[in-house]
Amino acid sequence: MEGGNGPNLQLQQLPLATAAVSVQPHTDSFSYKENLIGALLAIFGHLVISIALNLQKYSHIRLAGSKDPRAYFRTKTWWCGLFLLVLGELGVFSSYAFAPLSLIVPLSAVSVIASAIIGIIFIKEKWKPKDFLRRYVLSFVGCGLAIVGTYLLITFGPNSHEKMTGENITRHLVSWPFLLYMLVEIIIFCLLLYFYKEKNANYIVVILLLVALLGSMTVVTVKAVAGMIVVSIQGNLQLDYPIFYIMLVCMIATAIFQATFLSQASQLYDSSQIASIGYILSTTVAITAGATFYLDFTGEDVLHICMFALGCLIAFLGVFLITRNRKKSVPFEPYISMDAMPGMQNMHDKGIAVQPDLKASFSYGALENNDNMPEIYTPATLPIVQEQHGSKGVSVPPYRVLEHSKKE
């Protein structure tokens, strides 16, 4: 009897194993559903952020071209842009709680695509027919490539979904791959900061690489904070774990320092260069951080990883083409240049500008600069009249600046 019951017991276990296997496709479909929700939230957030920045830019430009004495923060357009900006940031923030980090970060290309289209339609920038092929065809090709890259990212993105509980985040934080990654990143960051501050190596790659290293920690902490908040809303309270507040403080600190370096870069380089190079560097470093901390690509096959990498490369190329043919910024100097007057002190003292530099005043929002408004930003040219010297004992300055009205 015992020998006969052995085969029966083995046969009874087969349906159970089959039932366990049948559960896996349901889990995969649910994971893809979460990926789609996170991707849609990220796309929505970046679109709204782009519209918000361009609304605020439009408010500044309209005030600068009119005699309205109001400040920009007293206009409805600027406050509407601020509201949309907060709404977009909330959308991007919540997207990290649903989809893997390596999937959400590259979707910031949507903001570049929207800024390129809004720069032509919303800001109503002028262009000549002969300049269309030279400027806008590459931009439209770049938008198409960025859209194709975004589709590949969503389709072949990592499918790892882990509950952002305090235990899981702490376990990832003390894992040896992430500790080794943090050690390498701290060393690289300190070296770049030394060359930037002490050796005056203010190259755009150096500054934006500092931004990318800080940004990788920002997105890692943002996913942890957003994930723990969502888990707490679902009923499993995670806000009583100390790791939540550690991640929250790190998120705020890295975001502030990241904004500081971005502000310094905007004073030295054009916004189109910052958008393209910053997107490539920040996306690459952030994906590496997500793969190290959250193990996004664990269990993924080679085909999905290669197609995801191809989507990133296509998105990089698209962003590069969008920002490649942007016009160079024209510095605005509302005062007479002291370099043009012989015998006068130079306008720069040890590299620090004496006159105000408003080159980056309207550099946010659309990736186009404001070269089409000469009637607003044409600097006044003061006539310089040379006079004869007086008596021998009296020294008269060789140049005299005459006041003149705006009509002259």
TrEMBL record:
Its main location: membrane. The keyword Transmembrane applies. The chain crosses the membrane at residues 36-56, 77-97, 103-123, 135-154, 174-196, 203-231, 243-262, 274-295, 301-322. GO terms for cellular component: membrane. It comes from Casuarius casuarius. One of its GO terms (molecular function) is magnesium ion transmembrane transporter activity. It is found in: Membrane. The keyword Transmembrane applies. It holds the Pfam family Mg_trans_NIPA. It comes from the Eukaryota. It is a multi-pass membrane protein. Keywords: Membrane, Transmembrane, Transmembrane helix. The gene is Nipal3. The lineage of its organism: Eukaryota, Metazoa, Chordata, Craniata, Vertebrata. This is NPAL3 protein. Belongs to the NIPA family.
